[in-house]
Design brief:
The protein has 766 residues and is of the alpha/beta class. Helices cover 56% and strands 18% of the residues. The model has no long low-confidence stretch (mean pLDDT 90). It binds ligand C2E and calcium ion (2 copies).
Length: 766
């Protein structure tokens, strides 16, 4: 039996242990035998010898017992040492020698009976020694040879026939004892080796069993074992939790007959037939009803002789993964703020809808909408209010569509509504589209309640039917966008259907914007000044008006380029430049010559964070008296909230800047808010002045405005006074300041300054 090094060490240790184990039994028996021998010899051998012999044997036996006791107290690890074997051997040899000495000391040929006792006792002790010492092969001879050899020699020396016969018997016995000792030793050796081998393979088996148990128990996957008949044999805890079952419910379950999912049953069949099976999908547990998205790998198991012995299935729970996939999908296809589909999803849906409509010949509708002046709301009321507004708009959009339609958020305040099927007739389709767009406009323009703040916001809506020719997704969206743009140009809060001519118009507009961006740096911008006069024709101020001379197209009206600049932050740049220019002029020209200068400020610029600081800095850096600066705002400043607007105005008023309300009468035409705004001046729009002497209604409006302004203590400037009649009418109604072609057309800066320098108080000469 081949043992490894450790086992050999264990074998050696075990052999030593056997020697020491129950040592007291042979030792005590040998002492008893010694006592009997002494008793038998007492009458014939000198008693002193006998006592000394017995004493020596007792002492050695005591020593051996003490050694055994000491050995047993040793920790396991120390017992294997060689020195324990040597100590034992010394004790054994000594006691063998003492017994051998008995053979010499008590050899009495004349008393045959006693001699027989001696021979029998020595033989018995030897035989006993062989049985107890055979754990180590050489230990028995070490004991037996010293015992029997002196006796054997003495018997041979006697030479008589009987003695020789006895010697032969003793020799035979010695040989026999040695041989059986060897056999016994071999037996013990084999026995221990076998035990060691068995216990080592058992412990290996235990370790591997424990390891597989641990894997079975702790694997993050579910593992289920079934037999050839499809009955569940075992299942780990993960498997139970995936299936939503308790162990008692599952063990013994007949998978073939109790499962109701044919896909799973097929996978088990495959595993048992061909070795593997696979299932992926949402599994509904028959007992618990729990639905779990999972993946299952089935494989057959084989026993040692290679026969199929059931199978095992590894279950992977897909719930987390599915959830993660859903999250990824949501992030990829939905807008996180409004939870509406995003651009990507819209594009995919629109692309497939366009294909479907091409196939069935019907028409679909895309509406593109953008909230008017959303940026101002966002900038002035804060992003959380802006976000809330977008969410509420989204809700209204969702309410406006059926389950076929889609409302998507493209970016910022741009939304798209897709109606896959509108009509199969172009004319009917166009009517329905307009109707739908108008309904949507009505729904979206209702007041929004944003945490207590009530806000009116309008959208501009552009729409287009598709497919009209061979447009793709990009074309359809662009058409709707162009139409929306057109709706904005037509004064916002409008709906507008796409017409092919719009695209060219839009392109021109884009070109203009590009050109305008370069205009300031390329010196194409200039400022005209239009003087304002009082009732006695004294120049009391002027309005700065921006001019653009395009290198190819010549003078472009501010009515054209200002709205374009307002679409982007370009307006901020342009007006900042104008403000700077005007402050420099005010610093140059004495107050007496030019008491005040008015500048037009767009709402977009006014709502810009830092506007108040920029104006403060501009007047401060030129050392200009801020009260000489009049900021003209239109009624649209209130769009973002009356409070916000008046706060900003108040901030500038504190340093002295004055405010005028431009184009009064054309916007909200509500007089109520006039009281709330810190205004110094009202500018009656020139459209009212124009027909003042012919149209009764306009005259009435002007009269009302003048009376009310007087009542509120606000000065009035009449714009667009073109003739004497108008002037006379206004003068008669106590208007204080006049501006118009009748007095002076807007003039370039040099002309204006030279006009100022001609006289300290230039008087108009109409
Ligand atoms: P507005 O603020 O109402 O400016 C007065 C406009 O009336 C000027 O037109 C002026 O030339 C014109 N006007 C003056 N007197 C008469 C008259 O007797 N009859 C007629 N028919 N028109 C008269 P303009 O210079 O073409 O400016 C048009 C508009 O462009 C301005 O209207 C203003 O809204 C805007 N604008 C001009 N410069 C700026 C600017 O720097 N910022 C902003 N936001 N808007 C500006
Ligand atoms: Ca103005
Ligand atoms: Ca005006």
């Amino acid at each position: 039996m081949a043992l490894n090094v450790t086992q050999q060490r264990q074998l050696a240790g075990e052999q030593v242990r056997l020697l020491y184990e129950r040592l007291w039994q042979p030792v005590v028996s040998s002492l008893l035998a010694a006592c009997l021998l002494v008793a038998a010899m007492w009458p014939i051998v000198p008693q002193g010898y006998l006592l000394v012999w017995l004493l020596v044997l007792t002492a050695i036996s005591g020593g051996r017992l003490a050694l055994a006791r000491y050995y047993h107290r040793q920790p396991e690890a120390c017992r294997y040492r060689r020195r324990w074997l040597l100590r034992f051997a010394v004790g054994t040899a000594l006691s063998g020698l003492v017994w051998g000495a008995a053979g010499v000391l008590m050899f009495v040929t004349e008393h045959f009976g006693q001699l027989a006792v001696l021979v029998v006792v020595l033989a018995g002790v030897s035989a006993g020694g062989v049985t107890t010492l055979s754990a180590i092969g050489w230990m028995a001879p070490l004991f037996v040879v010293p015992i029997l050899s002196p006796l054997l020699i003495l018997l041979l020396l006697q030479g008589s026939g009987l003695m020789l016969l006895l010697a032969a018997l003793v020799a035979l016995f010695l040989g026999l004892v040695m041989v059986s000792g060897r056999r016994l030793n071999q037996f013990v050796h084999d026995n221990i080796s076998l035990r060691l081998v068995v216990s080592s393979s058992e412990s290996q088996l235990r370790i591997s069993e424990a390891r597989y148990r641990a894997i079975f128990r702790h694997t993050p996957l579910g593992v289920l074992h079934f037999d050839c008949g499809g009955r569940v044999v075992d299942c780990n805890a993960v498997g139970l939790s995936i299936l939503g079952l308790r162990k008692q419910q599952l063990l013994g379950m007949d998978l073939f007959n109790e499962l109701n999912d044919p896909r799973v049953i097929e996978a088990i069949h495959n595993a048992l037939k061909s070795g593997t099976g696979y299932f992926e999908g949402t599994y509904r547990s028959v007992k618990s009803g729990k639905r779990t998205p999972l993946r299952a790998f089935f494989s057959a198991l084989h026993n040692e002789s290679g026969e199929r012995d059931g199978g095992v299935v590894v279950l992977e729970d897909f719930t987390e993964r599915k959830r993660a996939e859903e999250t990824i999908h949501r992030q990829a296809y939905f807008d996180s703020l409004t939870e509406l589909p995003n651009r990507r999803m819209l594009i995919e849906a629109l692309a497939s809808t366009i294909r479907d409509r091409r196939d069935d010949g019907c028409l679909g509708l895309v509406m593109f909408l953008d909230l008017d002046r959303f940026k101002i709301i966002n900038d002035t009321l804060g992003h959380s209010v802006g976000d809330e507004l977008l969410r509420q708009v989204s809700k209204r959009l969702l309410a406006s569509i059926d389950d076929q339609g889609m409302a998507a958020r493209l970016s910022g305040d741009e939304f798209v509504i897709l109606r896959p099927v509108l009509s199969d007739n172009l004319e009917v389709g166009a009517q329905r589209a307009e109707r739908r767009a108008e309904l949507l406009l009505d729904s979206l323009r209702q007041t929004y309640d944003l945490g207590g703040q009530h806000l009116s916001v309008t959208p501009s809506i552009g729409y287009t039917l598709f497919p009209l020719a061979d447009e793709d997704v990009g074309d359809v969206l662009r058409h709707a966008d162009t139409a929306m743009y057109q709706a904005k140009l037509r004064g916002r809060a409008q709906v507008c259907g796409y017409e092919p001519a719009m695209q060219a118009q839009l392109n021109r507009r884009l070109e203009t914007e590009q050109a305008l961006r370069r205009a300031l740096t390329e010196g194409q911008m200039s400022i005209d000044f239009q003087p304002q006069y009082d009732a006695r024709n004294n120049l009391v101020g002027a309005e700065a008006l921006m001019r653009w001379q395009h290198p190819q197209h010549g003078w472009i009206s501010p009515e054209v380029f200002i709205p374009i600049a307002e679409e982007s932050d370009l307006i901020v740049e342009l007006e900042t430049w104008l403000l700077e220019y005007c402050c420099a002029m005010l610093a140059r020209v004495p107050t007496a010559t030019l008491p005040r200068l008015s500048i037009n400020i767009s709402v977009r610029h006014f709502a810009q964070p830092g506007f108040v600081e920029a104006v403060t800095w501009a007047v401060g850096s030129h050392g200009v008296d801020p009260s000489r600066l009049v900021v003209e705002l239109t009624e649209s400043v209130m769009i973002a909230g009356l409070e916000e607007a008046s706060e900003r105005m108040e901030a500038l008023k504190r340093i002295g800047v004055r405010f005028a309300l431009d184009d009064f009468g054309t916007g909200f035409s509500s007089l109520a808010y006039l009281k709330s705004l810190p205004l110094d001046e009202l500018k009656i729009d020139r459209s009212f002045v124009k027909h003042i002497d012919t149209e009764g209604s306009d005259a009435a409006i002007v009269e009302t405005i003048l009376a009310m302004a007087r009542h509120l203590g606000i000065a009035v400037v009449a714009e667009g006074v073109e003739n004497e009649a108008q002037q006379a009418y206004l003068l008669a109604r106590d208007c204080q300041v006049f501006q118009g072609f009748y007095y002076s057309r807007p003039m370039p800066a040099e002309a204006f300054e030279s006009l100022l320098s001609k006289s300290d108080q230039p008087t108009a000469e109409p």
